[in-house]
Amino acid sequence: MDLGLTGKRALVLASSRGLGLGIAKALAAEGANVLLVGRSGDRLLENCKEINAAGKGKADWVRGDLAEDNFIEAMVAAVEDKLGGIDILVNNTGGPTPGTVEDMSIAKLDTFFQSMVLRVITLTNALVPQMKAQSFGRILTVASSGVIEPIPNLALSNTLRAALVGWNKTLATEVAGFGITANMLLPGRIHTDRIDELDGANAKRQGKSVEEVRSASLKTIPVGRLGTVEEFGAAGAFLCSGPASYITGTMLRVDGGAARSI
């Protein structure tokens, strides 16, 4: 299947590693030109070298931190300077610290709301006019399976990512007539550094070994294993593709069947 991504211009947030990088690599493998964003210039540079060596889509990078006040302005400028415009926006953010509802102080709520919700919405609003003008756009927002079934000890993530669900559905309706789709991609247990960190935190909280925690979690996944970043990235690339033009306002789970809700 030709995904129709050759030459498309994609901005992929939080793509120095993990899920964001997986989507960026998948888009580039289909011929898209990708702009990687992250806090580590060294890591971004190495990722770009790897993508460019593959000889399909091109990759460039820009340092960006969602926690910084000038993030939106910097991204808008980078899109124009390095891509010459925008076709695809992949909204992806780091996850907040683990903890319970009682651990959610006002300071923590405000800090992570800024980086996980406010700047995602603001950046999207800044780039949508370009997509409208060209009658084409793909907006993909990475969230978490916690918006379907809240994950224990991730109260901040469950709360803040859920705010994007209503936003995405509203946005999808408003921009559909301009050839723009807006979808959400919900990872379950995809094997990344973040999963290793969370398993370590849960092991400490439960007084168990990381191996015990990991084994217990695998029993809750019908396919019996963690997902791969490559599998997740492929799903993201499809939602950004031409053939996915009739899919919008949806949430696609990539969780090995772990969510029990219909």
TrEMBL record:
Coiled-coil stretches are none
The highest taxon in the source lineage is: Bacteria
Q: Which family does it belong to?
A: Belongs to the short-chain dehydrogenases/reductases (SDR) family.
- Indicate what this protein is called per its UniProt record: SDR family oxidoreductase
